[in-house]
Write a structure and sequence with these properties.
The protein has about 425 residues and is mostly beta strands. The protein is about 10% helix and about 40% strand. The protein contains 1 helix and 32 strands.
Amino acid sequence: MKSIRGEMGIGTLIIFISLLFVAAIAAGVLIQSTQTLQEKAHTTGKQTKSQVSTALMINEMTLEKESNGDYRTIKAIAKLAPGSESITLDDLILTISSYDGSVSLDYSENGTLTPGQEGYYSQGDQEISTAIGIWQELEAGQINSAAWNPLNSVDYDLDGTADSVRFCWGGASPCAAPYRDGRHIAFNLSSDPTNLIYVQMTSDGVTPINSICNIGGAQPINTDANVGPYGRVIITGTVCQTCCYVGFGAGYDPDVYYRLHETNLTEDLDGDGNSSDFMYATSTTMVLNFSNGSVFTIPLGVDISTAGQTIEIEQILGNPSGYIGKLEISGTTALDRVLDLGMEITVAPKTYAGAFVVDYLQHGQNSRVGVISYGDVVQFYLQAPRSMQEDDLIMFTLIPKNGMPTRIETTTKSVMNTDVVSIYP
């Protein structure tokens, strides 16, 4: 019989060891891949759980009237949903919308709990809801105490009839007794002649002048005052102190202007934190005056001294590389010297943005500023993009960076006659 013997040479041994080595490497790669996949699955599961469970719950929302009478301040009380992880406010996207506008707000950690650039605010379109009249100068004549002096081109109350003005002095004056001191003028508006509007004249905007009728010599006058809610009167120059009138004559020539319906801009377009921006009209231009010193004069293309003027304007405020907003005017004037309420006048900001602030009503165990943690109860302060009206739509959205969005869609009350109106639930 033949015997069979296996090959046991060096070559065979090398091949066998190589197979073991390759198998070991393959096993290590497989184990490592399994561990990596397991870790990724764990991380993904954790993130998914966080994404699904992390959310805010809105308990209550109110709409409040601001000092100018607009319903714009919104306060929302919120806390974390059960099982939710902490939410960093800097990572929170907050939007507030109405049917015709939307604004995205950023968190302001150091903002005050008041509306404005130092607190919470939003920049949206401002639709001008007051008539804007033009400047008129008293070019001749005087404001004396003997009779009512007609303002031939000034119609403060927009009733189609010119108003009148009178210097208050003497016992026979129709001015009320406290104003017959030679320091006041009275305006008689044709729509309500029984209720006179009094303006005290000053030498520096604050200090009352000496009585014009008592002391000899001239004195400076610098008055810029409201004529009720209808407009302003501006008197600058030097007046005769024994003449008992304000006007032209005897070498004294003060400038007397009547500014009708100057309109304050609620949106801080120049972004300087000052809300004293305003706009007014001349017979051929619209002037926007900003608190940072910028003044934009926009030609109207027509003379509004007479009614029936059609205006269509869409004008950038600034230049394309550095503009701050836009002015739009559309319509036909119905009154002389006035852009009346039938005109559509809108001032739009460059960007629709703003800021919200948060007040901690209750602190949880791990509470810290800038983060909503479990146990915290917070109140959001924000502004709507415009003044909200009755039966108006409000959409409120909170979107955390990691988490589920919270959306509230609600409608304002049919009657809003209180300073604070509940809008949710």
